[in-house]
Amino acid sequence: MKHRTGGFTKVGAAPKFLRSLRLTVPLLFALATLSVAGSLAGPQVEKAVSPVFLGVVGMLAANISFCTWHRFRIRPRSAAGGRRAVPWLDAAVHFSLVVLIAGGAGKGIWGTVGTGYLFPGTPATTMYLEDPNTDAPLGFTVLLEEKREAYYPLRLKVGVRGAATGEKVALLEVVEGRATSLPDGRLTLSVREVLQNPAAAVMLVRTAGGETAVALPLVAGGDPVTTGPFRLTAVAWRRDIRDVRGRVKILEGERVVQEGWLEVNGALAHRGTSLFLTSWGADEFGNEFLGVQYRSDPTAPVFWAGAIIFALALPPFVLLRRRRVPREPPRPASLP
Q1: What are the beta bridge partners of residue 54?
Q2: Would the pTM of this model clear 0.70, i.e. be above it?
Q3: Rounded CA gap, 165 and 182, in Å?
């Protein structure tokens, strides 16, 4: 195919419409519209628009590719044009955009998102895929070695009665890390430790007779504890989780290839699959677990390669395009 530009004939040039900005703008608008629709309308709409989205991505990649090829093929501008031509940098910037798009499209085509549960000491080798409702192999083994929980200070309301008469004395609010006393100073309470199984608060109780430690059950309807002249009952309590994390090992066969902490707002990555902590709790038998999401993106290296090329090529490209080339002085008119 031949294409004329400025009196020169270019063989193999792409049709003007395919490399035109008039095509790029509506394609970008379509991508934005489909992205918003898929994100706000839910999984069903996102699944329905996914083929259209990938088609638009392919058209945009072709548009940028044709533009790159055309800009690289055209002859550099002359000095009279006022700008220095930078065809290689121009091509690198455009090519990096194509690579970025290819990496993103590859994630949409070949990327997978699965879920699973990690129980301490139990190896996990598969993940659950909601679509098509099946288990898929991870390609490696994930082993939860340890689960740790960090809590905000316990807030505890303690009912105080006389041990002999059962008469109500006061309702004290005790916060872990801070001592609380009766107005007359006859009783001072503080939390020394919180036990998990069975749930109890180890209280330091100071009376006129001295200081002692008692375990106050943290269960509904728990039995009161008598210490000195007082009888103590846990009326209400609150202890919120501040942080959860698990120490995880990743194994290839019997060999440990990676070890680290899986935390909230953090991730572990291995062989293109990233692990994210999404939930925690215990099953009906009391076995504690961590809920994990697995995200696999085999074309992530392609995406990051495009990002690196773009970051390296864009600054010198912009700098050289702004630099002016000195104009040649006008030649004197020739004598007749």
Answers
A1: none
A2: no
A3: 18
